[in-house]
Design a protein that fits this description.
Layout: H1 5-18, H2 20-46, E1 52-55, H3 58-68, H4 72-79, E2 85-91, E3 98-105, H5 107-133, H6 140-154, E4 159-161, H7 171-176, H8 181-186, H9 191-209
Antiparallel strand pairs: 1-2, 2-3, 3-4
Helix pairs in contact: 1-5, 2-5, 5-6, 5-9, 6-9
Length: 235
């Protein structure tokens, strides 16, 4: 038996309410850990600690773009590449210095990461609530959530490397792992499709996690319960 769509939203809301601390911790902590991991990866890869940081006036830049760009599509594209913060290593051996590598905080990518964190946190609290109810969560849910998170997270990387001679992008990570720079830049256009596939998997994970389906019969219930019938489930 499949839980009707109209019953899934209350199930999800109840799970978040019951585990709100965990949910908020994942939503806030995941993006922070994601950027910390990128910075740590850059330091380990190149062996130098960051020696500069630059904070950009993102709101003013966005306002200027909105006023001066007539095309809506161009406006969205330009704003999506605007930086908020840059942390990196500056090589001072050449005049004023050359930025060899940097981690860039791009608000547009932050919004994508927040959406990823919200969906991942939702799957997690649904899973925790299922266990508390003694219900079995479909194995497809954590698998889809993990794969979807990996796809969205990888295409949300905002590292810069002077060798790539490009704006901060996820393909820099491919180059740092050994893939040739021309090939990495060649596959960059498929990034949005990979991101979309990741979110589709995350949506499927939330859908599956909010409906244990046939596996719920392992709990000995005569009918398929929602994951959160706590009061009526043998307590």
């Amino acid at each position: 038996m499949i839980v009707p769509a109209r019953r899934r939203i209350p199930i999800i809301v109840e799970a978040i309410g019951a585990q709100r601390g965990l949910w908020f911790a994942v939503v806030v902590g995941f993006p922070l850990m994601f950027y910390a991991a990128q910075l740590a990866g850059l330091v380990l890869r190149f062996g130098d600690l960051p020696n500069y940081w630059t904070l950009y006036d993102w709101p003013s830049n966005v306002r200027r773009i909105l006023v001066s760009t007539p095309s809506i599509l161009d406006t969205v594209a330009i704003i999506s590449e605007e930086w908020l913060l840059e942390i990196g290593y500056m090589n001072r051996d050449f005049g004023h210095g050359i930025s060899e590598w940097a981690l860039n905080i791009v608000p547009a990518r932050m919004f994508v990461l927040m959406a990823l964190a919200v969906m991942l946190a939702t799957v997690l609290v649904l899973r925790v609530q299922c266990r508390r109810c003694g219900l079995a969560l479909p194995a497809s849910s954590p698998v889809a959530a993990g794969l979807g998170s990996a796809l969205v997270g990888f295409t949300s990387i905002t590292m810069y490397w002077v060798v790539c001679c490009a704006s901060p992008t996820w393909v820099v990570g491919l180059s740092m792992m050994g893939l040739s720079v021309p090939l990495s830049l060649w596959i960059e256009p498929i990034g949005p499709w990979i991101t979309a596939a990741g979110f589709a998997l995350l949506a499927a994970a939330v859908y599956a996690a909010s409906s244990p389906g046939k596996e719920a019969t392992r709990c000995g219930r005569s009918s398929n319960p929602t994951p959160f019938d706590l009061r009526s489930h043998g307590t």
